[in-house]
Records
---
Amino acid sequence: MELFINQVLAGIATGAIYACMALAIVMIFQAIDHLNFAQGEMAMFSTFIAWQLMQWGIPYWWAFLLTLIISFVAGIVIERVLFKPLAKAPVLTNVAGFIALFAIVNSVAGLIWDFTIKQFPTPFGSSPFLGSQLISTHQVGMIGVTLGLLIALFLFFRFTRIGLAMRAAAAMPESARLVGINTSWMVALGWGMASAIGAIAGILIAPVVFLEPNMMLGVLLYGFAAAVLGGLTSPLGAVLGGFLVGVFENLVGTYIPGVGNELKLPIALALIVIVLVVKPNGLMGHTVVKRV
Amino acid sequence: MTILLSVHDLRAYYGQVQALHGLSFDLNEGSMTTLLGANGAGKTTTLRAICNMVRSTGAIQFEGKPLNGKSTENIVRLGIAHVPQGRGTFTTLTVEENLQLGAISRKDTKAISSDIERMYAHFPVLKQRHTQQAGTLSGGEQQMLAVARALMLRPRLMLLDEPSFGLAPLIVRDLFNILGKINREDKVSILVVEQNAQLALEIADKAYVIETGRIVMSGNAQEIANDESVRKSYLGY
């Protein structure tokens, strides 16, 4: 029983990271109807920036904040330079763009910081949480930061005018322009926010998976699985999907013999396929109610 | 009478296909003007060209200033509210959010809330449903919402594309009465495109008839309504 609880809690903690990645993916998907395959690499690069800042002696939380700002601006720049010109291009052109971005970011990170594995600090410590062997303080920190982020995003989209404008631009771009919204900048803003959310995910998971240019590959796959499970059109679904996938991954790895760590990745892929076959809209992807 | 909107030699294109062939007309300040014409005559294209939503050449002036080269959102911000065909409702958002979006380019947040109350007074059904998803409203209610959303901009000019489309005759009558009231009381000039020519001519003061991308007749709504060829072609008697 203790093993079960332990695995569920650990699953919720990594699920929080998948939730962040899924959320970043869904935000860009809502804005431009494409999946950002480079989301994980962008997050990895942000994490390296945070690491570099700390190497230069900047305290953890300042480095954290600076990294978010840099990632936000970089996300906007990537959209303006690379994807705005592709806005009306066919799907495959965009896919090629994302793969190019993936390869470029990955190689540049390797070039600057090389491919050796690096330790990444945690501000929460890794001792048992409140003396309990079930969950560590860093895992609690992961869950806490993610929940704080989710609440902040919810408040932003629900109660601010710019959040409303972003939702409108994503849902009905032409109508949004007809009320005076600059939809093109809303897309760029979505990229900036997705990039910053990815940075948070990268920084939180780095102490667990260690820092290196390929660190986000598995995380991104689980993020995709979470986004598909939750429904690509629903941010809330993406978050729920993230937590579910995290727990599912851990339980399968623990209780199904022969799965272990090596076969965990195929599980993510299998999950994506199963959801797409059985319930393509995902758990919370909406079919819009319409009366004409 | 001052001219609010002047369109001169407007030509519009969908890809290689030319839809408007040098169309010119004026709209006076405070007027309610209607564009009549059969399917495919170019009425919708004219409205879309004014808001730069289709590739076009020619001179369009609003309050004496050229609109050419401005983006759709910047044209809207000058005070031109456009209710497109199909109403353009934000179906996944609530009724109240739709109204707030109508005023999203305005900075005077206090006046916005009082304007929302004013819209609820104009259209009581919207108040009853203000937390409901806009996509669940009936066609007539959605058209009311679209007009209310456009008014939230506090526009100088409102462009309406087939507001009667798909609505029951009684609701259409209601809607046009409200439009007349808005035109008179709120001093909003209106350019309305309609297939329901009879109703449009009853309420408008000026009318233009479009055929295959050109203006073929213009005049007071009364004159146009009495014209024999218009009666035969568009009014059916």
---
Amino acid sequence: MAEDQTETAATAEAEPEAQVDEARAGIVEAFRAELGDAVEDAEVQPGRDVWIRVRTDAWRAAAEAARNSLGARYFCFLSAIDWLPSPYGRSMDAAVDVELARRAGEDPASPSTELAHGVTGGSTRFQVLARVADVGRPGGYWGVTLKADVGDDMTVDSWVPVYAGADWHEREAWEMFGLTFTGHPGLRHMYLPSDFEGHPLRKEFPLLARMVKPWPGIVDVEPMPGDDEEPADGSGDADGEGDS
Amino acid sequence: MTAVTDRQKLQYIAARAADARVNVELETEGMTLNIGPQHPATHGTLRIVARLDGEQVIAAEPVAGYMHRGYEKLAEVRTYAQVTTLVNRIDWLGSFANEVPFILAAERLMEVEAPPRATWIRTLLFEMSRIANIILFLGDMGVQLGAITPVFFAFRDREYVLDQIERVTGGRFHPNFDRIGGLKDDLPKGWLEDTKAVMDKVRSFCDEIEDLLMGSEVFQERTRGIGIIPPDVALQYGLSGANARASGIDWDLRRDACVGLAYPEVDWKVWTHPDGDSFARFWVRLQEVREATRIIDQLADGVPSGPIMAKVPRIIKVPAGEAWVSTENPLGEMGYYVVSQGDLTPFRLKIRSASFNNISITPWLLRGVYVPDIVTILASLYFILGDIDR
């Protein structure tokens, strides 16, 4: 038994990347077959992971396809992303940013306000994302990250009828991002007091501790004693390449 | 005169009414029992509001949030190296294990790979955290059933493991030892031999616990057939780790999706139990500790030589991208979804902690159980509050 399992693990490790890639491309194909043109975009990183972005109105259909047709019975997590660049500056860590931008010859005064969507793109400020997986078959494990845009009505279908475990995750996303999940049995606060105002994980929600007392982050990028010569050359190494 | 009479009348009526209320409550209405947030069986500050009908629970609602620290928001203003300080404190009994998936996710985005020696030492410390974490569960389970002795054994033997972790990392609970590209330091001299001696102690602790608890009739009666989770329900709620394996789900990320750790190099076994009850969860965890000692023994024999750090820039800016990395932590699947936009800090960090999902099943699971079993079922699910609230 033990030998069998280590063998499985070893062969999975030794598989050429192209083959793993095929398996993940197969997942995308299976979703396309189930959902048709509701699959807006997909990305496969060979040997690593797979993302699928579906249309907002197909969000629950995607869960049903994953669970009932493709066998991804394991619910991992559900959450959201706010793609708005932080109005408090990149990284909200202004001192470091200004210093790094100065070294790189950029203008730190005007941070971008463009939404820079990550993997599989998108068009709205908020996106929901969730991960499901097929587990319990040794050697047959696979997982997929599903995403969907959330429009200005901030509403998306609930996953609770499909994966009961989505309940708490949707309550968390509701209080942290202000998303509403249609069909959820009872959206109420998970962590915060019931009279709390605002949605803490939205980018415009200020982190007061950081507002009041700026982080001494600049200390971290001060040159080490041995590095003193480099900036003097004028060849300022923005990445601070050095031995650790 | 009349006033006195009125008061007497009112008192009489009030007494009757109070009587009536008590009677009505006992006969027809249920009762709400508030367990926690300060209660020894809740391992911290989880509150359970249970609606009772006599001795039976008809509805139970866990109330979390007494320890919410907002790590997902805080991580957005911390550099990648600083985030490990935060994530140490999620599951504080196995803190090193929390750092690993985050560091692995950052390494994946940076296309950096830790040298083999660092990978092996990471795996060693990962398993040490597992033992330190689960040992406490094995002792604590006895306490919830009225057996005081096992927990003293657990604290005694966990100390040996923590001492070993401290010798390497300098911290018993919050090592903060993992770095992007490798580790902070190398192993101290003689550590591997001492670790193997400690593993012998851990194994004899497992035997002791098995002798003390598992044969006991009280233990069997209170755990066998109590709190049964069918595999389908377990998967829907996202139960992972030993809780899923105790429901017969043959799934372990160390075997099925091992990323950047040395598990494929050693010979070990995934333990499952078909019953899905409290006893099965205890039994699977006990076997896991034994298996972890086997893993550590093998790893200690074969730690490769070489550097412990890959070459990484001193100021770490992680290239734009998204990565999901999860590992099999002591409590279950722990994963980080890192969104980077090429800055010093993560743009968004979603922390998927095991206990959050493991406890979200309690409203379903506690329905219909008897009051004394609430405590044993919660203990057998084994959660850490920091791992629920983050």
